[in-house]
Amino acid sequence: MQKEVFAQTSILLFSRQVAKVMNSVCKTLSSPVNISL
Question: CA–CA separation, 25 vs 8, rounded Å?
């Protein structure tokens, strides 16, 4: 059970970090980019 919770939290943190990186990349490019999730 604890392993599951740890996995979920780590995935959440990882996805948050990825979102931050993607945001900065988009800002750096500063070009119209369509991201469909």
Answer: 25
